[in-house]
Amino acid sequence: MEEKEQNIRYVMVSSENIQQNVTNDEIDLRELWKAIWQGKWLIIAVTTVCAIGAVLYALSLPNIYKSEALLAPASSDEQAGLSGIAGQFGGLASLAGVSLGGAKADKTALAIQILKSRQFTSQFIQKRNILPELMAVKEWDLSSNKIIYDEAIYSPDTDKWIREAEPQEDVKPSMQVAKLVFDDMFTVQQNKDTGLVAISVEHRSPYVAKQWVDWLIEDINANMKVRDKQEAERSITYLQSQIEKTTVLEHKTLLYQLIEEQAKTLMFAEVREEYVFKTIDPALVPEIKFSPKRAIIVAFATLLAGILGVFVVLFISLFRKQS
Question: What percentage of the chain reaches a pLDDT higher than 70?
């Protein structure tokens, strides 16, 4: 009997504690809501000020336009013959620098890596003379379609750089610095499923963005064409020297076949303009800005400001209770 009475008392005490905790929680929630309601004008004020600041900040951001082209790896018909004789004479072909397997995929991957390389970017910037458009643009005038340069950095009239530079730096931006800025504006990606390659450029001028995409495609095709021509010419020279050294008829026949395939490479390099990439969807002058997303910026900043206002009100309320 005593144990039953103790259990009943324990249950009753526990129930009372639970009810008391629930009541305390309700009181706490009521106090929190009361504090928030009393400080509603402060919350509204903080939210309004931050929202206005977010609007002004969003409006101060320049429009960025994105131009994009969709490319397909060019067919490698000139490599088919090499693949056919790979099993017969692969060792000698490798010595000659001839690629016999996976030429199409490897060439596409190589071209993408070259596009991302420091050397190609530096050559592209210097060849196309785009350093001012890359480093010193202040804004783009829609009505006149002209780029307005920041004259604290670059003078278009005298074509001189006048920016403030560190003691160890030149007034004219280096190619290393230009590469970092260019990487933020340029993107190249390959779809693993389709193999298609997308090249895009973001710039304040939609016309500049489109022009750079066209130039990048043109220059990478020319770059890969020169590389393959040089490789084919070296291979032919080597193979011809091997023909003079061998007396086995079968070996000579295979060597002549390799020379023929390298001659095809030279022919394709001469006649094919879109050597490594064929344009499926060319770049266009974008009419709609890509960024900034001003509405999202303002909405997000306003939400954070509202949350901040609530925390400020609760902190003030807690400070008053403790003092």
Answer: 81
Residue 218 in contact with residue 278, Cβ under 8 Å? no
Nearest to 98 by CA among 211, 225, 253, 258: 258
- DSSP-H helix ranges across the chain: 2-38, 40-60, 80-84, 86-95, 103-116, 118-128, 131-135, 175-185, 206-245, 249-271, 294-322
| DSSP-based three-state secondary structure for 307 | helix
Domain residue limits, the chain = 2-60+293-322, 65-281
Q: What is the DSSP string of 57-106?
A: HHHHSPPBEEEEEEEEEPP-GGGHHHHHTHHHHHHHHHHTT---SSHHHH
pLDDT in tens, 70-92: 999 986 544 444 445 445 555 55
Q: How far apart are CA 163 and CA 153, in angstroms?
A: 4
Q: Whole-angstrom Cα distance, residue 69 to residue 192?
A: 17
Q: What is the mean pLDDT of residues 52-63?
A: 87
CA gap 139, 155 in Å, rounded: 14
Residue (of 193, 72, 211, 95) closest to 145 by Cα position: 211
pTM of the complete model = 0.74
Q: Which of 182, 281, 283, 272 is nearest to 222 (CA)?
A: 272
Distance between CA atoms of residues 271 and 139, nearest Å:
41
